[in-house]
Amino acid sequence: MPKAMLVDITECVGCGVCSEACKTEQKLPGDVGEKRDYANYTVLRQEEDETYVRELCMHCTDPSCASACPVKALHKTPEGPVVYDFDLCIGCRYCMIACPFNVPKYEWHKPIPKIRKCVMCYDTRVKKGLPTACTQACQEEGGGATYFGEREEMLAEAHRRIKENPDTYAPHVYGEHEVGGTNVLFITAKDRPFDSLHFNTKLPEEALPELTRQILYKIPVIVPVWATFLTGMWWLNNRKVEVDENEGSKEIRDTKEGEGEND
Amino acid sequence: MTKPKFKFTFWRVVAALILIAGAVATFQRFVYGLGYATNLSDEFPWGLWIGVDVISGVGLAAGGFTITAIVYIFNLKKYHCIVKPTVLTAFMGYALVGTALLWDLGKYYDIWHALVFWNHDSAMFELAMCVATYLGVLALEFSSIALGKFKWLRKPVKFLKKGYIVLVILGVLISTLHQSSLGTLYELVPQKLHPLWYSELLPYYFFFTAIGAGLSMTVVESYLSWRGMGHEAPLPVLANLIRGLVVIQLTFFVAMFEGLVVSHKLGYLVNGSFESGMWWLEMALWVFIPTIIAFRKKWMLTRFGVFAAGFSGMLGFLMNRLNVSMTAFQWSAKVKYIPTWQEVSVTASFVVVSFIIFAYAVKYFKLFHEEDDPFESIEDSAVKAV
Lengths: 263, 386
Prior knowledge:
The structure holds 2 protein chains of 2 kinds.
Chain A: E1 3-8, H1 17-25, E2 43-47, E3 51-55, H2 64-68, E4 74-76, E5 82-84, H3 94-98, E6 105-106, E7 115-116, H4 133-140, E8 146-150, H5 151-164, E9 184-187, H6 209-216, H7 219-262
Parallel strand pairs in A: 1-9
Antiparallel strand pairs in A: 1-8, 2-3, 4-5, 6-7
Helix pairs in contact in A: 1-4
Chain B: H1 10-32, H2 34-37, H3 48-60, H4 63-73, H5 83-104, H6 113-116, H7 123-146, H8 154-162, H9 164-184, H10 202-229, H11 235-262, H12 274-294, H13 297-300, H14 303-333, H15 341-365, H16 378-385
C-alpha cells in the first residue's frame, strides 16, 4: 500500500529539524539553505506572520517527471516514493520542465551532473517500513507537524482534523486531488488558506501525464492510416503519368495513321 | 596540380572567429559544466541550445520530407530540381541536431540510452526514436542521390533507387510523428506555458507549420547558393514554394486564432506585455510579411522578393519555436534568461559548420545538376514499380 506524509501547517513551529535530518540522511553537502536545490531536498518557506511551509517533492500518484523521462530514470515505486536512477539518466532535464511543483534540481556546477530531488528516503527507510527522516525528526525533536503512514490513513486523519475543528482548519486537503493526487498532503489554518501561502491552487484534478498519453497512444492508430493514404497517393499520382503516356502514344499513332491516309 | 590559394574574405574571417569562440565555449562547457558555460538554472533548465539547435533545427530540416513528398508521392516533377540540395540540408540538419544535443545533455555519453530504455509515456522518448530512425532514412536517401558517382558503389545505389519511394513514405511517416512530438513535449505543462502559445492542438500546429518551415528553408538556401556559388534553381519553382508557404501559414493562422477566440485569450494580445509584443512580431514575420509579398506580382518576379518572403517565413518560424520554448516558459518561471556568449557562440558555430558542409557537398556531389548518371532516373523506376 502506498505511504504518504501529512504536513499540518498549523502545528509547524519552523524549527527546521526536518531539513537538517534530511541533510544527514541523504548525505547532502553544506548548511541548510533557504531554497530547494541540489543540496537541499526539503526547506522551510517562511510566509509573513510566522507561518512556515515545508517544501519537498509531492510524490505524485501519477508523476509528470516519471512520464516525461525518456529513459525511465525516474519512476514511481509501489510504496509511494518517486525515485531516481543516475545510471539511466541522460541529463536532458525534461523532468525539470515537466514537474508542476518545480521539484527536480540539477547539479549545474558539475561536468557530469545528477538530477537531485527528495526520494522519500526510499532505499534507507521507507522500503524497510520505517518513517522518513524528516518525519522522525519532526516528531521526536520538532513541533510534530509532519506525519507518516499509509496514504489512506493520512487522508482520513486530515479529514478528521478538519471535521473536528472546522474553525481552525481550511476545508481542503492539498494533495488529495491535485494533479491526480500526491503522496505528500497538507492541511492549513482557516485564516491562511493555500492560495495565500503560495501553493498553486489552480492545478487540475486530472493527472497531467494523461495530456501526453492521449496524444502518444494515438500513434499506433494513425501510422497505418497515414501510411495507406501516402502509398495510395503515390500509386494514384504515378498511374496518371502512365495513363498520360499511353494516351500520348495513341495520339501519336493516330496522327501518324492520319498522315499515312493522306499519302 | 597547384592548390588554389585560400583567400581571406570578410565572411571567412567572421566564420573563423565564430568557430574559435565556439571551441573555447565547448572546452568550458565540457570541463567546467553547464552552470559555468550557460545561464541555465533550476528555474530555467532549457535555453538557447534546446530552443534553436534542437526544437528549431528539426523544423528547419523539414524540407527533406516536404519536398520528397511533393515530388515522389504527389508527383509534381517540376520540383525535382531542388530534391538533392533539400535532402542534403535535411540529412545535415538532423546530423547536426543529434550532435548539438551532446552539448546540452548532462550525460552526453549515455545519449544512446534513449534508444534502449523505452518509456512509452514520454514524448521525448518518441522524439529520440524518430529522430534516430529518420537520420538513418535520410542517410540512405542521400546515399542514393549522391554516391552514384563512385563506380564501386553503383550496385547498392541502384538497389536504393529502386526502393526510393519506400524511403520517401517512411520519411513522411516518421516526420509526422516527431515534428508533432516537439509540440507534444509542451502538452505536459499547461500551467507553465503562456496562454497565447499553449494549446491542446500544439502537436498538430507543430507538424503543419514544419511543412512551411521546410518550404521557406528551401527557398532561403536556394537563394544563398545562387549568391554564393551561382547555382540556380528556377525562380517560378521557388515562387510557388512561397505560395505554398503562404497557404500553410494562413491556414494555421486561422486555426490558431480561432483557438484564441474560443478560449477567451484575445485579451492577452492587446495587454501590452512583453509576451504580446513577441506574439505580434512572430505573426508579422511568419504570416503577414510572406503573405503581402506573395500577393505582389512584381515582387514575386524578382529573386530578392521571393527570398525575402522565404527568409521572413524562416525567421517567423524560428521566433515561434523560441517563443514556445523560451518566452512562454519564462512567463511562468519568473526569471530572466539571457544566453551567455558561450551558448551563442556554440549555436553560431553549428550554423557556420552547416554552411561549410553544404557548400562543399554541393560542389563535391554536384547537387544542383539534374540526373546525368547512366542509370534510369528515379521517376522511371517509380513508374515501373506500379
